[in-house]
Amino acid sequence: MKGLGELERAVMEVLWAHEDAGGQPATAREVGRALAGRDLAYTTVMTVLDRLAKKGFLRRTRDGRAWRYRPAASREGYVTELMLGALELTGDRDAALAHFAQSVSGDEAEVLRRALEDLTRKESPG
To answer: What strand order describes the sheet that includes 58-63?
Structure first.
């Protein structure tokens, strides 16, 4: 999954927030209203939504004459893909992971520790 441009990120943030709030998939008009402070033409919003759908970032369904859009993956899933992609760029994944682990806060390290313990428990027989 590739990175997103500034406007694409803004659109995705609107849709992730909309989904987090329990909303149904959003129309281009609803996304445009949420981005009102950016002074974008409706056609620009439609074009960005269409491109994001073609890139696989969004799923869309017909609702009368309009399309409704929802994220194909969670924000966390997207960030995970970015992190894994960054690891692919390094010649030494172990060193990159160690450097990352040394750069996180104590609370973040604890989150990682718990996640690794949970993974170890799931992989252990019995």
So the answer is: 26-27, 66-71, 58-63
